[in-house]
Amino acid sequence: MNNFLQDVTESLAKSHKSIPSKYFYDEKGSRIFQEIMTLEAYYLPRCEMEILEQSAAAILSHFNDQNMDFIDLGAGDGSKMISFLRQVHHKLNAPSYIPMDISPEILKVNQNLIQNAIPNLDILAIPGDYFVSTHQIKQRPNPMVVMYMGSNIGNFRLEEAVEFLRFINDFLNKGDFLLMGVDLKKDPSTIQAAYNDKEGVTKKFNLNLLERINRELGANFNLDLFDHYGTYNPSSGEAQSYLISLEEQLISIAEKKYHFEKFETIHTEISRKFSLVELNDMGHESGFTWNKHFLDSKAFFSLSLFRK
Ligand code: AVI
Q1: If you write DSSP's letter for every residue of the chain in order, what string do you get?
Q2: ipTM above 0.95 for this complex
Q3: How much is the pTM?
Q4: Cα of 203 to ligand 1 centre, how many Å?
Q5: Burial 246-261, CB ≥16 within 10 A → b, else e
Q6: Whole-angstrom Cα distance, residue 111 to residue 107?
Q7: What percent of the chain has pLDDT over 70?
Q8: Is 202 in the pocket of ligand 1 (CB under 6 A)?
Q9: ∠ CA(26), CA(5), CA(127), 5° rounding?
Q10: d(CA 89, CA 262)
Q11: From CA 138, how far away is CA 55, in angstroms rounded?
C-alpha cells in the first residue's frame, strides 16, 4: 500500500479523524499556498521579509567567518532570500548558499533566480528530504548557518518541534548557528483572520486535501459537503484547521467506507505561535547555548538566531 493511502485510511479510521498536513503540498496545493502568501490577512511572509531586509546587517554582525555555508531547509523558490543573500555576499568573502527542498523543480527555479540576482555566489542545490540531504554535506569543512524559515516550525506538534531542533543541533558543530523564522503570539483576532481569509483561499487550500484524495486514491468526497473551520487558542498558541462534514455521509476510499456524522471534524493542521520565552526555553532544551531574536516593526514575527 502506498504511504499516502495508508496514512489517509489510518487517520480517517480513528475516532478523531485527521489528515497529516504534509499532504497539502501536491502541485495544486503548493500553488494555492503561494496564493495564501499574497493575502492581506496572511501577514507572516511580509513580516519575515521586513526582518530579512531591515535586520540583515545586525544578524550578519554575529558571523565572523568568511566561508560560511548558508543551508536553507525547505528553500522553495528562494525569492524571499535574495535581499538577505545579497547582504551575505557583500559582507563575507566566500559564503555558499545551499538550498534544500523536496522538489527538484522548485530548486531549479531557486538556483536560477539566486544565480541571476547574485552571479558570483557559490550555490549548491540539494533536492530531497532534508533528514537525508543534510548527510551529504556533513563532510564540508565550513562553519554553518542552518536557515529554517517561514514559520514551518509551527506545523509540528510541540514535542516534534523540540525533536527537530535537537536534530539540527546534532547536525551542527560547536559555534554554528540556526536562523529560524517564527510566528509570535499576538492579538488573537489577527491570527484568527490569517487562517480565515475572506477570499476563501485557505478554505480552498484545505478542501484540496479532499480533492487530492479523490484524484490520487479514487475517493468520492463531495467538496460541497465539507466546510473549512479555522480556530485559534491563545492559551496554547495553536491555530487549528478542520474540515467539517456538513451532513451525515459515507465516503469510499479504496473499497472501504468511512462514516461521517453531521458536523464531524477532520483535523488538518496545527500552526503554532510562540512567545519569546518559549523560544528561549526550546533553544536551551535542544542544546543551543545562546540566542537572539530579531523582530519586525509590529513584533508579529521573529527571526531567531541560535548558536550551538
Ligand atoms: C507552511 N505553514 C507555515 C503555513 C502556516 O501558516 O501554518 C501553512 C498555512 N496553512 C494555512 N495557511 C498557511
Answers
A1: --HHHHHHHHHHHSSSEE--GGGG-SHHHHHHHHHHTT-SS--HHHHHHHHHHHSHHHHHTT---SS-EEEEET-TT-GGGHHHHHHHHHHSSS-EEEEEES-HHHHHHHHHHHHHHSTT-EE--EES-HHHHHHHTTT--S-EEEEE-TTGGGGS-HHHHHHHHHHHHHHSPTT-EEEEEEEBP--HHHHHHHTS-TT-HHHHHHHHHHHHHHHHH-----GGGEEEEEEEETTTTEEEEEEEESS-EEEEETTEEEEE-TT-EEEEEEEE-B-HHHHHHHHHHTT--EEEEEE-TTS-EEEEEEE-
A2: yes
A3: 0.95
A4: 12
A5: eeebebebeeeebebe
A6: 6
A7: 100
A8: yes
A9: 40
A10: 57
A11: 29
Render the burial of 267-296: b for 16+ CB within 10 Å, e for the rest.
bbbbbbbbebebbbebbeebebeebebbbb
Determine whether the shortest distance from the Cβ of 150 to ligand 1 is under 6 A: yes
Q: 181 C-alpha vs ligand 1 centroid, how far in Å?
A: 13
Q: Is the CB of 221 under 6 A from ligand 1?
A: no
Residues 3/11, Cβ–Cβ less than 8 Å: no
Residue that the C-alpha cell 506545523 belongs to: 155
- What's the one-letter identity of residue 231? T
Q: 64 CA distance to ligand 1 centroid (A)? A: 34
User: Letter for the amino acid at 4?
Assistant: F
Q: Tens of pLDDT along 273-295? A: 999 999 999 999 999 999 999 99
* CA 118 to ligand 1 center in whole angstroms: 29
For residue 85, which of 74, 65, 71, 104 has the smallest C-alpha distance?
71
